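Researcher: Before we compare anything, I want clean individual predictions. No alignment, no superposition, just each chain on its own. First chain goes here; please echo the sequence and then give the structure tokens.
Model: Echoing the first chain and its structure:
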Amino acid sequence: MSMSNPQVQPMALEDLVVLDLADEKGMYVGKMLADMGARVTLVEPLAGHPARHIGPFYQDKPDYNNSLLFWYHSTNKESITLDITTTKGAQLLKEMVKKADVVLESFQPGYLDSLGLGYEALSAINPRLIMTSVTPFGQTGPYRDLKGSDLVSMAMGGPMASSGYDHIPDAPPMRCDGWIGYATGCNFGAIGTMTAVVYRDMTGQGQWVDVSIHEALSCTTEAAMPNWFFDRKVPIRQTGRHHGLTPTPSTQFVSADGKLINGFDIPPRSLDRWNRLVAWMDEKEMAEGLKDDKYRELITQGVRQGPEMDFLRERITAFIASQTADEIYHGGQKIRLAWAVIRSPEENLDDEHFRDDRGFFPEVEHPELQKSFAYPGAPAIFSRTPWRMRRRAPLLGEDNDKVFSEEMGLSREEIVMLRESRVV
């Protein structure tokens, strides 16, 4: 798309300084801020960030610099190693807080307070400081001390109860993969952080942003909560489509080349789209029986069940099965039907819309490997303050000298002593 050179444009958050102490539960917040220009410094334990030890690993070689999960979630960040449980480590963190705008953390509630590093202690040092805490259940309430994981959050937050299969008898709830629970909490965490930044810029006052993944997920249960609140009814799980109070027909169809089509809006809900679909099917000599006026009346009336609807769906199913996935996908979209191919993540790597027009997969250099790799890119394109991939995820402790020596003024002898005493 046309825009001025993003390499010379300012980035939206380039004046924001962030200290990132969050583990895998909250690491996506730091990535979003860093990708929009913030200086985000990972404050890692000496053994490395927990995500460094989670696979898959580059070339299947477990190493704290090889985790692909860490690579993605740590783009544009810096890395220092610091044991904040030691007296000197806590002192160094407090020195860094003096110049920070935001601290991100995801420790168990009360843990940082036990080290003298909680919000009250740090805000006394820097009243403009914003601390964002991303935890399974938040800082207060009877659940605050419960242990959590993405699986626990998806289960207790509600989404899992609405996800699963209706074509398998007595199928249990299913959790979708990809750490969606953590990602949801982190999205709210980023929104909360930026809202606090705006307030701080207006008033000069920082604040504590308490993000509960449990509550964030409870905001995403779609129709489940309102149906229970108003009617005390529980929607049923349905394969590959919305849950519902009553069963609805499947939206997945098999094309001639064996691919799955997600055929939402079958039958079409508007007469215009119905007429277009019948005309398309008629071109392929497959509209037999569907040109009767009674079907137009049923579409106009919004009828979704009955023998006529069963016949209609049978004819459309046969039509989809007679065409390739691309023919059905593009043909359906052409007549304004929300139909699409169900793709694997790997297939999207070759999508010309992503790759060529949107530039969604930037190449990121890894100098130590003398290679570059395609990464998922910007979730949005900004015309004036662009997202930009400035550097790959940091190696463990890669920025220790820059931060401790050049910026904090520690002598070489002091750094050697800190290393020997296992502080850095």
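Researcher: Okay. Second chain, same rules.
Model: Second chain and its structure:
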Amino acid sequence: MLRIVVPALLLLTTAATRQLLREYPASIEGIVVKAGTSEPIGGATVELTGIATRSTEGSSSVAPGLISVSVRETAGDGRVLSFTATTGSDGRFAIQNVPPAAGYQIVVMPVRGYLPAQYGQRVPNLPGSPITLSSNEQRKDIRIEMTPGATISGRVVDVAGRPLRNVTVDLRRPWYLEGWRLLVDWRETIARVRGIGKSNRAAITRTNASGEFSFSGLAPAQYYIQTTPAKSITDTPINLHAGATVSNLEIVVGPTESDGRDRTIEGVVIDQSTGRRVESAQIR
């Protein structure tokens, strides 16, 4: 009598299937430093975020002379995965037990005058690069550079040198549209290019009782300052470098009605027919 023993083969196949379907958690390690240097930044919060990946399910069945193994892929549930860590005094961080997935983003939150940063980011305000973590992968080469924020400060005065309070000060960056270099807000040009627009306002503030204003945490770029009373933009651009401090700016604006002071209007009334002055005309 011929006897075929299947259970052992079945057990081996099922075990192999489970081994293929099983995913082991990954981990990442890295360092956060000041941009362009090897100076570590301690106390920074590093966040790893992603979307739960698709899952797989396996099953097997056995019949006389036949072993069937099937693998079924199911849609992910769309959960947002988030993991955080804090850098030590050496700037290093580690995140363990991360489910394998693609499209992870690593972001470092702002800390002590530094701009927020992202892994793979070349310059501030531009997106970084996503990373993929496979099963049981241990990434130890993550390096994130943080750019120091810059500062601009000054005061707004009238033509007599007196400080103006509660003046709106706009900090603007030039932007380009169809070959045009623009400093005005997009709403002012929307009639010309309807449906296409972009705000170039980097920050906005108001002067205090001493006419002073200040902007901090700025990315390196070229800036212009605009004040609302005169509706004008400074002619000289401010080329701001990373971590720079530009202070003692003085912006002079013309007289306006917004400061609450009385104004005087003087002039001469002329008789159009004779060209002589009219001594007793009523002026309204």
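Researcher: What stands out in the second chain?
Model: The longest helix spans residues 7-21. Additionally, Confidence is low (pLDDT under 50) at residues 8-20, 194-198.
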